Amino acid sequence: MNRAECNDESGVPVRVRLTKEAPMKPLSRKLTFYIPLPTEDDPRSDCERVLDALRPGFGDLRIGFSVMRMLYPACRSQGGQVTATMIWQGDAWHLTRLEAGDTTAFHYGLAADLGSTSVTMELVDLNRGEVVSKATRYNLQRTFGDDILTRIFYGKDQPDHLKELQEATAETLRLLMADLTEQSGVDAGQAAVLVLAGNTTMIHFLMGMDAYPLFLSPYAPVVSAPGFLSARELGLPLEGPVYLFPAKANYMGGDIVSGMIATGISRSEKILLFFDIGTNGELVAGCKDFLVAGAGAAGPALEGGVIRTGMAAAKGAVEHVSIRKDKVRLTVIGKGKVKGICGSGIVDLLAELFLEGVIDFRGVFCPEKSERVEKVEGEWAYRYADASRTVDGQPLWFYQSDIRQFLDTKAAASTMVAYMMDAVGMRFADVDRFCVAGAFGTYINTRSAVTIGLYPDIPPEKIASVGNSSLEGCLCLLLERSHLEEISGILERMQYIQYGAIPNFVETMQAAAAIPSMATQAYPSVKKWVAQRQRGRT
Amino acid sequence: MNRAECNDESGVPVRVRLTKEAPMKPLSRKLTFYIPLPTEDDPRSDCERVLDALRPGFGDLRIGFSVMRMLYPACRSQGGQVTATMIWQGDAWHLTRLEAGDTTAFHYGLAADLGSTSVTMELVDLNRGEVVSKATRYNLQRTFGDDILTRIFYGKDQPDHLKELQEATAETLRLLMADLTEQSGVDAGQAAVLVLAGNTTMIHFLMGMDAYPLFLSPYAPVVSAPGFLSARELGLPLEGPVYLFPAKANYMGGDIVSGMIATGISRSEKILLFFDIGTNGELVAGCKDFLVAGAGAAGPALEGGVIRTGMAAAKGAVEHVSIRKDKVRLTVIGKGKVKGICGSGIVDLLAELFLEGVIDFRGVFCPEKSERVEKVEGEWAYRYADASRTVDGQPLWFYQSDIRQFLDTKAAASTMVAYMMDAVGMRFADVDRFCVAGAFGTYINTRSAVTIGLYPDIPPEKIASVGNSSLEGCLCLLLERSHLEEISGILERMQYIQYGAIPNFVETMQAAAAIPSMATQAYPSVKKWVAQRQRGRT
User: Fold this and answer.
1) B493: which of A173, A253, B241, B284 lies 20 to 30 Å off by Cα?
2) Residues B169 and B189 in one domain
3) Domain shared by A308 and A294, yes or no
4) Chain A: residue whose CA lies nearest to B51
5) How far apart are CA A295 and CA A276, in angstroms?
6) DSSP E strand stretches across B183-338
7) Cβ contacts (< 8 Å) between B76 and chain A: which residues?
8) Closest partner CB to A233 (pick from B65, B209, B219)
9) Alpha-carbon Rg for chain B in angstroms
């Protein structure tokens, strides 16, 4: 699979084109050449002979101790033919490996997204610009807490615990490397470089650092731009360096910066919105001329966390819902009995309840509109799954309080978008593309998301799900080293909005808790859809 | 003891003057300052806050992973007061340590000469420019062979053996650090930096590298200028880096380059000769305008190695000899019975035999001139120690063949000097100072050395014994970082003469085997001393 082309087809902005016009310039280069053997007239050291040979093309190369130890006998065998591996590290090319003979046919890199729940890694053939293999595993940090906060407190002021967290992170990456090796038959440990992105806490844990300061206001990281580190120092069985995507701020981590590279926002002629919705919501608006970013706690509600029957997107979860005349049609992951409902199902359910008039713009049930609305445990609730469909033979209810919770979270997310649009004086009509990152964005029904006001009301073709954009950005950098400069530019140019510091944020948010919003004029399509549905019902 | 002043008194050229006019600029700097705690308006990472604070004075500092891990909680305790340790590494300042509070009162460095036989290390107070403590140990590499060649063959193509040699070298240095700690009460492991010089083979072994290529023509090193390496990577319990003096060529190792820094040859207005006599003889002639170097196998003869009754300068060794009217006066190390004769004793003995007419200018015995000359084991020999003076009650003899051997070695050494003078068109009168490095130079009688033509015939006040100049150069660099530039200049400017490649080297050497030389006109003093002695005898 040619990943670059694949992205092209998927509708995601193309990052790397493997055409003759724009040849790939990967982060890593391998070059084979002949080193003249030393003579009486030329008794330069092996090291000098290698560096002198590479200087015309690579300038003054940096070289570390581990590579010095590879020089001999590599330079004296195979008639002096050697293969050098060099990594562009922004300031200079670094010679990271020297092998005897011609090994240029083997040239791989690794890209990884270090998520707090799961970690994904790809093995990339840098000669062909192809993803050869991909693997995902749960982050072994979960042993020390399912949520990030538990892990942060576990590590706080405890060097031994921080070591455990570091080791669990490294072990996850090692297992992924083993997975890739097994799947592809290519030794991932021989890759030239690993490019990795994660949120700021994940990067701290990978580096064995205390992430407690990230939890306390003003949330200053210990290190925000670690750059290239030695894989060995991080406990990874790799001969080359590891590049860690830098963070702009605690809540604007390397995963977001990487996502910006993937979406191309910072080099786009037109204005993009890049929204990564998860436990936190990170939003970036901009183009090649400006970049504004903000982040806020979107809350786990969006992912089904605080809804009483909510669950992760796994077997038995309702992922899509449609309602017509009190008839509910559910799409269930795994197609069996229903266990609960995941984020994309909740968005559909809310949208359908609203369009069917079962809830009003405030999200309040109108019990007279549906026989499925009943008082359960003292509050109104909607029976979205009948007893016959469920795993335990009990009906599943969507409660008034669930709606409240979800709308609060939705309000936080859409207020971020609205506030930012306002701050930079943009209207939605100015936005050329609304990119939504993450699993949530991949499975969500765009129209439902617009209906409840989670997404802005822009034409559906302008709304793109960019998937794991953190991983994608790593891949982009592996294949095109000039992104390193772009990253520096992003860190310099990006304006960061602290939503917590906005005076009327709470009031604005309350307005945004309506469906789709109190500012209905911003949602003409929703008005139209409501009208269509009403006509359908009568 | 203020070492810089001490050198002044010893007659050795002063390297570092601790005066107000020329303040010391050590390789390492410690600076204490306050890091503002992060605020909502300034949520920069700890790393950025430290680097930003240091930027005005130190430019764009380099920072490694180990220091990143020191940032927290150092930056958040003690009211934000931290102490940074920075090492100037030629290209940039490197932040190598960060501590909470003010630790500037503790600022030490280490200097070490890594010799193949013994290793010497000094602990230096960089705040005062004082050597606090000094220790010497045998090099533990000797387990794998007394001489360098045996060790080279032991390590050849054997990674396990190279690891043993590396470990033995590191262990020697660790023990020396422990010695210094014990002697001074100052933890040498907390020193900011270690500056080390050794010959090319020693540096290869310290780095765990195969030194076999150094043994085979054209003797190209694997690495000649490793620069700053991590102490940890070398197996040393030190938080900072280790600077290894670079070599110009295999036989012009870091110990010689260091010695050049110590003698100041490369910044001298007047012409210096710097001669390091050991198993190899390394010679450098020059001043701030030019530098010419050469090296050749001086052979162990000079240090008493191949003389039948020769021995190292230890208890029982004759270190000085004078002869008048067939009466021999010996100075013996330890003042007890005689076991043998060491290098300085041999030089005296040869000079005295020549001045007394017991040997002629070819070194051939004139048996009629002394009752002490007898045929022993088929060849003429001189009884330099009577049976009553010796440990085993047997007289000690200096044989005709001993003289031949020694004069060949002397010839090699003095030919180097003569050839180089010729090559650069200098006469001895042009030489402002003749610096002799090493233990040999320290104990030798200058007048005897001139008499036999080992040293050029220049006024005795121009001949300086500079002791362990390799160690001295390390100390100089520790105390004055600008020497790093000087080292680069030395490597660039120094012309290297391959004596092996000189067409008539063997013939020239044969002429130089005479006493003091066939070119007697170059030794007017010797002619005068011979005449004085003759008058004394008649």
Assistant:
1) B241
2) yes
3) no
4) A223
5) 9
6) 194-198, 227-230, 241-244, 271-277, 280-286, 291-297, 317-324, 327-332
7) 213
8) B65
9) 26
Whether A68 sits inside 8 A of B223 (CB atoms) is: yes
Q: pLDDT tens across A18-30, in order?
A: 333 456 899 999 9
**Looking at the domain assignment, is residue A489 inside a domain?**
yes
Same structural domain, B182 and B330:
no
Q: What sign for the dihedral angle of Cα B506, B510, B516, B517?
A: negative
Q: In total, how many domains does chain A have? A: 4
Name the pLDDT band for A4 (thresholds 50, 70, 90): very low
| Ramachandran area for residue B220 (φ above 0: left; ψ -120 to 50: alpha; else beta) | beta
For residue B4, tell me if it sits in a domain. no
Range of the domain at B499: 256-300+406-528
Chain A residues within an 8 Å CB radius of B69:
207-209
Compute the half-sphere exposure of residue B431: CA atoms within 13 Å on the CB side of its CA. Answer: 29
Last residue of a domain, one of B69, B100, B131: B100
Query: How far does the CA of residue A262 sit from the closest CA of chain B (Å)?
Result: 25
Answer yes or no: do B171 and B287 share one domain: no
* A337 located within any domain: yes
Interchain CB distance below 8 Å, A220 and B40: no
The alpha carbon of residue B164 is apart from the nearest alpha carbon of chain A, in Å, by: 15
- Give CA separation, B48 vs A293, B45, B233, in Å: 20, 5, 27
Q: Are residues A419 and A501 in the same domain?
A: yes
Tokens for B37? Answer: 């705690």
Quick check: B508 pLDDT over 80?
no
B-chain residues within 8 Å CB-CB of A66?
A: 233
Q: pTM of this prediction?
A: 0.88
User: Across the interface, do B218 and A40 touch by the CB < 8 Å criterion?
Assistant: yes
Q: Is the pLDDT of residue A441 over 90?
A: no
Residues of A with CB under 8 A from a CB of B: 38-40, 42-49, 65-66, 68-69, 71-73, 76, 157, 207-210, 213, 217-226, 229-230, 233, 249-250, 498, 501
